[in-house]
Design goal:
- The chain has 308 residues and is α+β, with helices and mostly antiparallel strands.
- It folds into 2 domains: 50-254; 258-286, no CATH class.
- Helix content is 24%, strand content 35%.
- The protein contains 5 helices and 17 strands.
- It has helices at residues 16-37, 150-154, 203-207, 259-276, 281-303; strands spanning 7-9, 12-14, 50-62, 75-87, 102-114, 120-124, 130-136, 158-163, 169-175, 181-187, 191-192, 196-197, 213-215, 218-220, 227-236, 245-254, 256-257.
- It has an 8-stranded antiparallel β-barrel.
- β9 (169-175) and β10 form a beta hairpin.
- α1 (16-37) runs antiparallel to α4 and α4 packs antiparallel against α5 (281-303).
- The longest helix is centred in the last third of the chain and has 23 residues, at 281-303.
- Residues 2-14, 32-38 and 280-307 have low confidence and may be disordered.
Length: 308
């Protein structure tokens, strides 16, 4: 019969010393597993609410026929730098990270339609178009819109988020009653290196902003997508002719921790159960059964998507 210092583990009789060894071995295995599957995001984002990335930038209108009109097939391209990272609902400010890192953008959009008076424009992501965000650190934290190589400086960091041709993309630019213009876009993401899941959400509905817009003569409402952005013109660029306009705006996403983050929490809970109750096989089994059950429920939540 086993003494109080002996436990049944895996069907065999083990001494208290061997049980301690088993604890250490388990801790090493769990630590190795977590170090492989869990990497801290390069930029920490608010979770459980919309993340708002505010930016300023410079935009170039490639007027290929020199008629001062944005005709179909002509391109708007440019660079931008994120100036703030906020929780859109809570106001939680994560912008301090931008002291030693930068998030920059390099973009290229093609005009795909317009109204007869050009008060309404539509943009697409055609082959060669993109909207990419990069994180710069050290030598690559070098963004300078006045530099002759501003495009290269905006894109020499680590690719963080990419919106490229293929998935859903819809963008309109409309003249406002005060004479200004507002560019609104809905997009799914092709490259996500943020360290977070970015589910499809009705982001404008969550933010309480007006989603109504037209594509051609068809009225569209909100779309369930991974990202939206609103862009405005601040005036003519001080770096003309390299750039035409100064711009500002917001990019919104909804960040959810990746499963590896939840795994760390769940494994920690199960390990606590295992180590706290060494008196029997049942407790350990139940601890890991709880982990398995929680993980299955989590997986269902994480992979679920919202229909567009």
């Amino acid at each position: 019969m086993a003494s109080n210092r002996e436990v049944i583990f895996g069907g065999g009789m083990k001494s208290g010393r061997n049980h301690s060894f088993a604890k250490c071995a388990l801790a090493l295995v769990l630590g190795s597993m977590l170090s492989v599957c869990l990497a801290a995001p390069i930029i920490t984002l608010p979770v459980g609410e919309v993340t708002r990335l505010s930016y300023t930038g410079q935009e170039r209108f490639n007027d290929t026929n020199d008629n001062n009109r944005p005709d179909v097939g002509e391109v708007f391209e440019g660079v931008a730098s994120v100036t703030g990272i906020l929780g859109a609902t809570s106001g939680a400010d994560f912008s301090s990270q931008l002291a030693n890192k930068e998030i920059t953008a390099h973009f290229h959009f093609t005009v795909t339609g317009h109204s007869s008076d050009f008060s309404h424009l539509e943009f697409g992501l055609l082959p060669g178009d993109f909207f990419n965000l990069y994180v710069g650190q050290g030598a690559s934290k070098n963004f300078d819109p006045s530099a002759s190589d501003a495009d290269a400086r905006a894109s020499d960091g680590q690719l963080w988020l990419g919106i490229q041709p293929g998935p859903f993309f819809e963008s309109v630019n409309d003249r406002q009653p005060d004479g200004s213009t507002l560019n609104r876009a809905w997009a799914d993401i092709t490259a996500n290196n943020t360290g977070y899941l970015l589910p499809q959400e009705f982001l404008r509905a969550l933010l309480g902003s007006d989603p109504q817009h037209f594509i051609g003569t068809q009225s569209h409402g909100d779309h369930a997508v991974q990202a939206i952005f609103d862009n405005r013109v601040a005036g003519f660029s001080p770096y003309f002719p390299r750039f035409t306009f100064s711009i500002f705006g917001e990019l919104d996403i909804f960040a959810v921790p990746e499963p590896a983050t939840w795994l760390l929490i769940l494994v920690g809970m199960a390990t606590g159960i295992f180590f706290a109750k060494p008196g029997g096989r049942l407790q350990r089994k139940n601890g890991f059964a709880a982990l398995d059950s929680s993980w299955n429920r989590l997986t269902v939540l994480q992979v679920g998507t919202t229909p567009r």
